[in-house]
Design goal:
37% of the residues lie in helices and 22% in strands. The protein contains twelve helices and 15 strands. 50% of the residues are buried. The chain binds nicotinamide-adenine-dinucleotide.
């Protein structure tokens, strides 16, 4: 793993998710930009090998007979390009956190490096790992909603409501810094999850957007709030709202999709339920673990019916599908690619770029 040292946010989640099914073990890391902290973090996790830099790790692991099978990238956005490239070029598969990079140009460079290397690449858009999100995708694909007309997605948080980046919050410091976050804060950080969720569940691309980005906190260079109109391929319309200054909300991600026959609603804070809303009939709550669910939801569920599972397991579902491909390709079989990858990452950055361009031009329609 690169990143994820003591005090980091998402690295520990990656470790749990990778190891949850007993199919992988974290053995090596360049866990921090500070070598002493990297070593202390590796020791606390009982890792065999701690490196002072990701360059050193990529080079030395590739030379070992028992070197790593894949690398996890859990470092800030500006490092995705150099770190991902270093591992791909050393012949190592990579699983990287979103967004793919800080801007579209960096994302395209990663795409090129991945294509040249022929190695596997996964992007941890966590929400695509939830069983009921996969069930919602099946609903849309099977035509049970009828013709898709409207998608409404919201992702609201409040942890950037004050200038915490100037009060020692490390996660906020890099996310609000254009040098390290890229061209956007809120849209890049959580808008990309909402964008991916729309395209994943609907199986349709967002073709164009009209966006209004703003920053409510004085002195903040990047957006902390955004509202958008969406046009999807096939004619559906939509709205996407994301905010990191929405007081009272910790992580309120929800999506509603409406077709000509029925609607669907999924909320991250009640992830084991999918609300089905047929026109003119009673609503129904479909639940994780029940026998009527489709294959994708069923194979993404670990606990018995009625026992909640959530964030860590959703993350682990992305890992499980990725690791299945690591094993398949090692055995000479083709990869299945049942997880977000380069294409989804590129689309995410096209979406971020289009939202920034739209807003900067006075909120005009911009194609993705
Ligand atoms: N999938 C999700 O839901 C989700 C959630 C949170 C964060 N993320 C993504 O994960 C990434 C990390 O975010 P975070 O909130 O954990 O950040 P963080 O600031 O908490 O942690 C970043 C870690 O990277 C380390 N680091 C920095 N430079 C390094 C270097 N040169 N070599 C090695 N390590 C280095 C830091 O020391 C720290 O340990 C970001 O790309 C973010 O967008 C994704």
């Amino acid at each position: 793993m690169v990143g994820g040292g003591q005090g980091a946010f998402i690295g520990a989640v990656h470790r749990i998710a990778a190891e949850l099914d007993g199919e992988a073990l974290l053995v090596a890391g360049a866990l921090s930009s500070n070598p002493a902290r990297a070593r202390a973090s590796a020791e606390a996790w009982g890792l065999d090998r701690s490196y002072d830099s990701y360059e050193q790790m990529a080079a030395l692991e590739a030379k070992r007979d028992d070197g790593i099978d894949f690398a996890i990238v859990a470092a800030p956005n500006h490092l995705h390009l150099p770190v991902v490239k270093a591992f791909l070029e050393s012949g190592t598969h990579v699983i990287c956190d979103k967004p793919l990079a800080g801007d579209l140009d960096q994302a395209q460079q990663i795409a090129k490096a991945a294509a040249v290397s022929g190695r596997l690449f996964a992007l941890t858009h966590t929400y695509a790992g939830y069983p009921m999100v996969r069930e919602a995708r099946d609903w849309v694909a099977s035509g049970r909603l009828g013709e898709l007309r409207k998608v409404q997605v919201e992702y609201n948080q409040d942890w950037l409501r004050e200038p915490v980046e100037r009060a020692g919050n490390k996660q906020a410091a890099w996310r609000t810094d254009p040098e390290r976050a890229g061209i956007s804060c809120c849209v890049g950080d959580i808008g990309t999850h909402a964008h991916h969720l729309v395209e994943f569940i609907s199986s349709r691309r967002i073709e164009s957007i009209l966006a209004d980005l703003t920053s409510f906190v004085d002195g903040r260079e990047l957006d902390d709030d955004a509202s958008m109109l969406l046009r999807l391929e096939g004619g559906a319309r939509g709205t996407l709202v994301c905010s990191q200054v929405a007081c009272g909300e910790a992580n309120d991600l929800r999506i509603r999709l409406y077709g000509s026959k029925a609607g669907l609603e999924w909320r991250q804070q009640e992830p084991n339920a999918l609300m089905v809303k047929p026109a003119g009939e009673a609503w129904a709550i479909h639940r994780v673990g029940d026998g009527y669910l489709g294959e994708a939801a069923a194979r993404s569920t670990r606990t018995p019916a009625g026992h909640p599972e959530g964030y860590l397991e959703a993350f682990a579902n992305i890992y499980r599908d990725f690791m299945a491909d690591v094993r398949r390709t090692a055995a000479g079989e083709p990869a299945l690619g049942n997880y977000p990858g380069i294409e989804e990452g590129l689309r995410g950055l096209r979406f971020v770029q289009a939202s920034v361009d739209s807003s900067n031009q006075g909120s005009v329609w911009v194609d993705l």
